Amino acid sequence: EAGVTQFPSHSVIEKGQTVTLRCDPISGHDNLYWYRRVMGKEIKFLLHFVKESKQDESGMPNNRFLAERTGGTYSTLKVQPAELEDSGVYFCASSQHRKGVTEAFFGQGTRLTVV
Amino acid sequence: TQLLEQSPQFLSIQEGENLTVYCNSSSVFSSLQWYRQEPGEGPVLLVTVVTGGEVKKLKRLTFQFGDARKDSSLHITAAQPGDTGLYLCAGAWGNTPLVFGKGTRLSVIA
Q1: What is the per-residue pLDDT for A101?
Q2: Would you state the CATH architecture of domain A5-114?
Q3: Which of A88, B3, B50, B56 could cysteine-pair with A38, CB 3.0–4.6 Å?
Q4: Which tens digits make up the pLDDT trace of A94-112?
């Protein structure tokens, strides 16, 4: 069974440009999460989809970030326009919840560098 | 304010030694996960604990969830160079998204 895959693995863009990250979850997983780790900090939650619906987007930093999951399969996270502080590693994770338990499987991450 | 505190932040030991890393919180979690992350990779789930006082073993790794479900520990027996990596704990309440600690970076020297 294929795991969670993310594309690209690395991206270097200039401040003000747009970047789109993609995540393909494990097949059949209804829940898809985006997380981010900035240097020196812990991994922080950004957004949670259940199928195609946004369940929780309380972690999204601001309106420069837009996440979509059309059709409830893969998801994209667009940053427009990118700022220096957006640099970090963006992780996608998916899960099928057991009752009362969140158990997520992560992709390898996309390392975003904004210069 | 960080919800999950992991200690130590860094640990360097010789092959064959034992070690324990800790994950502490003032909050109660309904489940807690331990992940291991290697450079360039995403976190890989090692174990999930859900019951206060629960102990789970994975080969040389022993995981314990505190009785009050606020803390957890990971004990590695006879560490090997292959155990090197970043160990992360993450907690959740019900089906809420995971809250992560900063991690313990372990280096096992041959």
Answers
A1: 75
A2: Sandwich (2.60)
A3: A88
A4: 998 766 677 889 999 999 9
Q: Token match 């155990």: residue?
A: B83
Q: CB–CB of B98 and A45 under 8 A?
A: yes
The answer regarding whether domain B5-109 maps to CATH 2.60.40.10 reads: yes
Beta carbons of A51 and A30 less than 8 angstroms apart: yes
Record: contact A44-B96, CB cut-off 8 A: no
**Spatial distance between the Cα atoms of B95 and A103, rounded to a whole number of angstroms:** 9
Whether the CA torsion A104, A4, A35, B42 is positive or negative: it is: positive
Q: Is the peptide bond before B97 cis (omega within 30 degrees of 0)?
A: no
Of all residues in chain B, the one with the smallest CA distance to A49 is: B97
Distance from C-alpha of B66 to C-alpha of B32, rounded to nearest angstrom:
10
